[in-house]
Amino acid sequence: MDNEADYTAFRKSAVPQPTAVVALGGSLLRVRRAYKPMAARHVATRGPIVRFTRGSRNRLIDFLASINHTQVRDMPLFVTLTYPREWPAEGGIVKRHLDTWLKRLQREYPYASAVWKLEYQQRGAPHFHLLVFGLARMSIKWLARSWYEAVGSGDERHLAAGTQVEKVKSWQGVMFYAGKYLAKVTAGDAPARPGRFWGVFNRRAFPIDIVRFRLTFAQFYGAVRLWRRARRLPLCHNVPAGRAGQGFKLYRAGPEQVLWLRAIMPDVSRQTGPLPLPA
């Protein structure tokens, strides 16, 4: 499908078809059996957010897996922002502190963008993990001072030890940090109702190119058979579980992603257009 309008028209069609979704330059490959027509879907009312759910975790991982690696100049920075011994009990105040710091980040580093995740420590204190893109390095002194002032700490020990920054060395490292820190699911509700547990700052700066293909049902079930075989191979921990009757996701980067797509759709080279296919 050439554009989002075509895709929306497909979603509204009376006869849904299977689809394959590929993130160009990323590692996301999703195959779905069919969508229900939009008019037939029940839209639930969203209640208050009290925990970081597995569904939210999956959306976070999918976003990172959709980033076009070839368009990112520098590996991101992994940043941690913590609170001193005393911290605000209200989730809204915590989010305002983050918003204040992100505005300072944008003023200091105009091309910066970030994916952030809120987490609560065992003592109940909130803290943030971020993957910051768009800059090669960040001043440790600026980071410590800017967060210290954003939260109005007043604790000199917090100024010295309230922040951390580390350079991520590879895209495998990005997904490692995402799985270990950003996408960690904790049991129980948060001490306060903070709203969203993760988000994207300066979303327009992220290079994400999504291509969608219509599949025949024969192609879909052929893809499911490939997926089932792949799950039995050793070292295939990044082939996540799913409902085979509905579809599956793979996190495969570069040529391996293309090989999967070609196995599903042998004539893919005539349909992809900009997809970089090996000879």
Descriptive account of the structure:
- The chain is of the alpha+beta class and 279 residues long.
- It is 33% helix and 18% strand.
- The protein has eight helices and nine strands.
- The chain has helices at 4-11, 54-66, 91-108, 140-150, 156-161, 171-182, 217-231, 255-264; strands at residues 19-23, 28-32, 77-82, 113-120, 126-133, 163-167, 198-201, 210-214, 247-251.
- A five-stranded antiparallel β-sheet has the order 6-3-5-4-7, with helices on both faces. A four-stranded antiparallel β-sheet has the order 8-1-2-9.
Give a topology summary.
Layout: H1 4-11, E1 19-23, E2 28-32, H2 54-66, E3 77-82, H3 91-108, E4 113-120, E5 126-133, H4 140-150, H5 156-161, E6 163-167, H6 171-182, E7 198-201, E8 210-214, H7 217-231, E9 247-251, H8 255-264
Antiparallel strand pairs: 1-2, 1-8, 2-9, 3-5, 3-6, 4-5, 4-7
Helix pairs in contact: 2-6
Radius of gyration, taken over Cα atoms and rounded to an integer in Å = 21 Å
Percent strand equals: 15-25%
Give the structural class: alpha+beta
Major sheet, described briefly? 5 strands, antiparallel
- Tell me the number of helical segments per DSSP (H or I, 4 or more residues long): 8
Strand segment count: 9
Beginning-to-end CA distance, first to last residue: 24 Å
- Mean pLDDT equals 79
> Uncertain runs with pLDDT below 50, 5 residues or more?
234-242, 269-279
Fraction of residues in helix: 25-40%
**Which descriptor suits the 3D outline?**
elongated
Q: What letter string, H or E per element, gives the SSE order?
A: HEEHEHEEHHEHEEHEH
